[in-house]
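A quick aside before the break. I want you to see a complete sequence-to-structure record at least once, exactly as it would be stored in a machine-readable document. Don't worry about memorizing anything.
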Amino acid sequence: MSMMFLYTLSIYSLALAIKIAALFNKKAKQSIEGRKNWRSKLLKFKQEFAHKKIIWFHISSLGEFEQARPLIIRIKTDYPEYAIVITFFSPSGYEKCKHFEYADAVFYLPYDTPKNARDFLNILQPKFSLFVKYEFWLNYLNEIFKRKKEIQCFLISSIFRKHQPFFKWYGSIFRQALKTYDVIFVQDELSIKLLKKIGITNNVVLAGDTRIDRVVEIAQQEVSFPEIEAFSNDSITIIAGSTWEKDEKLLLPVIFDLQRYYSHLRLIIAPHNVEEKNIQRLCELLNKQGFNFARYTQRNFLSTNELKTKNVFVIDTIGVLNKIYRYGYLAYIGGGFSDGIHNILEPAVYGLPVVFGPNYHKFYEAEVLIKTKGAFCITNKEDLKKIFFHLIENKGIYFTAQHSIKTFIEHHKGSVERTMSVLKNYISD
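That is the input. The structure line, written in tokens, reads:
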């Protein structure tokens, strides 16, 4: 029984599991509904854009979209004669980005079976295919490899770690898949070294993380949040972004204790899940802890003077957190007690020292900033209270962290330009 057969069998098992989960899970249901009649949807698009060549981006989810976004905008701006098609695997990406103005069409990626891969490529007939970071769908890559003369393939903002299957004894089919890419753009030197060990040396380019260009762009935008400004004015504002329940149960008692010492300390908290049920759970927790809080979506019912009496501001909507970090003194980023930390670059671009839980080792920027004392890892309430206290009381520690972060951002920005300097040699041909 071949490894490829087992891989394809796992895809069918995944599709079945999602179908079962759709009976009681909203996201799984969206995933099933969104993939219905995908061939006819794709054919309709292709007929409408028959006069244009296609550039296809495949992106896993919303987080990876932030890496692809600045590159998509740049390509669409420089090469308007091409149509841009984006596919997502997950509902979190598709639902938030299905109306993205720089894409000519956005679809769910059909499950990675041999027939789906053949049919998808036969209908779409892309000239270029770009996969983002960790997207290694083997049947699609195998089918693209067979069409090397018609389709050029790239992997952007990728990062490789020794635990991945490429570097294991059983990973031959994954190593073979890497040969599909005309160019692999990586984020760090370690990825280059790991690829070299398995014989992948040609067309590997150190380009960095395109998300950094995105957060720099956001930080440069002129925006105004009068309510947030009134709330945070003349205070030490800690911003907790993308928190989960585990983060909140650890964070809130520490904030409550610190507010006894620092009456001008404020918390802005933006949970990862902004569905009303979860927001209500967080509000109940805040009430239980004794906080006087306001919700962002209800801000219009509060006067400026009323806002100033609050000590917690709950961001219960999406799309504003990455701009609100500019009002912070330091940031706590959630996810470190779950599957992995969320985006620490969003606060870092404003020079905020960043604190997070122990599950950060998959993230290059976190590892670098930990080493250079721009970020801090905690495992319990005592750790968190101690680090917050040091960052508030010890300006030397605080300014060292700020300097580390600003140096990192300055050194690593420009990834889009480095990537485009290579891609344009292919697209312009």
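Two observations worth writing down. The longest helix spans residues 3-21. The chain has two domains: 3-208+414-427, 219-412. We'll return to this after the break.
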